[in-house]
Specification:
By secondary structure, the chain is α/β, with parallel strands linked by helices. Helix 1 crosses helix 8 and helix 4 packs parallel to helix 5. Helix content is 39%, strand content 18%. The strands form 4 sheets. Strands 3-2-1-4-5-8-12 form a 7-stranded parallel beta sheet, with helices on both faces. It binds nicotinamide-adenine-dinucleotide (NAD). The site of nicotinamide-adenine-dinucleotide (NAD) has 29 residues, from helix 1, helix 2, helix 5, strand 5 and strand 9.
Amino acid sequence: MKFILVTGSSGLIGSEAVEHFDRQGHRVHGIDNNMRAVFFGEPGDTTWNRDRLLKITKNFTHHDLDIRDRTRLDTLFRSIRFDLIVHCAAQPSHDKARDIPILDFEVNALGTLNLLEATRLHCPNAVFILLSTNKVYGDAPNELPLKELEMRWDYARPEDYQGISENCRIDRTLHSLFGASKASADLMAQEYGRYFGMKVGIFRGGCLTGPFHSGVELHGFLSYLVKVAISGGTYTVFGYKAKQVRDNIHSHDVVCAIEEFATNPRPSEVYNLGGGRENSISMLEAIARIENMTGKKLQWRYVEEARRGDHICYISNLSKFCSHYPKWRITRTLENILEEIIFSQRQLLTASGGS
Ligand SMILES: NC(=O)c1ccc[n+]([C@@H]2O[C@H](COP(=O)([O-])OP(=O)(O)OC[C@H]3O[C@@H](n4cnc5c(N)ncnc54)[C@H](O)[C@@H]3O)[C@@H](O)[C@H]2O)c1
C-alpha cells in the first residue's frame, strides 16, 4: 500500500487517478479547492465530482487546499510521507489566461514549484508526475508543412505522419500566457529531476478527455461539444476552416501511463501523451460524428479569426513513451470515448430534469 497525493483531484485527470489508485488499495489524498468554478463560473464547478469520489472510494481523503498556500502544503507534507505525487491542479485554459495572467502564473508555475519543493523537503524519493501540455510548444507545430483535405488539415510529409515529437522546440514561439506558465512549470519540474535527482516525469498532454470533465466552452472540447449537442446552445469554431485537428486520449489511458512511469521512473523524462493518430479528429469530423451518434443537429457558428497561438493540426507522437513503456497502449478508441461522454451528458441532462 502506498501513500499517493493527487492535486486537482476533483478535475478530469485527478478524479480518474483517485479512483484508479483507490481501487488498488492505496491511501489516496486529494487536493482541490474547486478553483475551476472560479475560472469558468458555475458550469466549471467540480464539487459533484468530489462528492462522487467520496461516495465510491474506500481510502480517499479530500483536502480543500489551494496549491498556492505553501504553509498548508507544508503541514500536509509533514504529516504524510507520500510515495507518489500526481500533479493535475491547474488553470487549464489557453484563452482564459489572457484575462487572469497573474492568477494563471501563480497556479500553474508557482503552484507547481510549491509542490516540487515540498516533495524535495519531505519525501525526495517520491515519484512526481507533472501534467504538462502540448501548448509548451507554442505555435511551433504550425510550421510543419500541411495539406488541406476535405474535412481536415493533415501533415504533408510522410515523416511527420505520426505527429509531433518531444524534439519540437519550446521557445521562440507564440505560446499564449497559459502555454508560457505551463512551460515554466515543465522546465522547473525537469530541473528538479536533473538538478536534485528526483524521480520527476512530465507528460505533455494533447486533448485529455473523458466522462468526468466539467466541460466548459474554454476548456474540454469534446465534452463541451457533446454538451451543446445534447443540451442545446451554440458552439463557436474559431478559424482554420473548422478543419483543425486534435488527438484525444481517455483519462483512463492517461492514468495508466502515469502508473507505468511511477512503477519504473526515468527521472526528468518528458513525454508527449495524447490519443495519437488513431484518435485524432477535426472539428468538422467531430461535429458530423456527434450528430450521427446523438441523432441531434449541433448548432455551431464559424468565426474567421483563429485563437491566438492555436494549433492547426496537432497529433501527439507517442513513439517515445511506447518505446520506454512497451506494455502501455491506447485502450479507448475515439468511438468509446464519444459513447461514454454522450452517455454521461444524457444522464446529467436527465438528472437536471431536461429531456
Ligand atoms: N484536459 C485537457 O485537454 C488537457 C490537455 C493538456 C494538458 N492538460 C493538463 O492536465 C492537467 C489536468 O487537466 P484537467 O483537464 O483534469 O483539468 P481540470 O480543470 O478538470 O482539473 C483541474 C482541477 O484543479 C483544481 N485546481 C485549480 N487550481 C487549483 C488550486 N490553486 N489549488 C487546488 N486545486 C486547484 C480545479 O478545481 C480542478 O478540479 C492540467 O495540468 C492541465 O493543464 C489538460
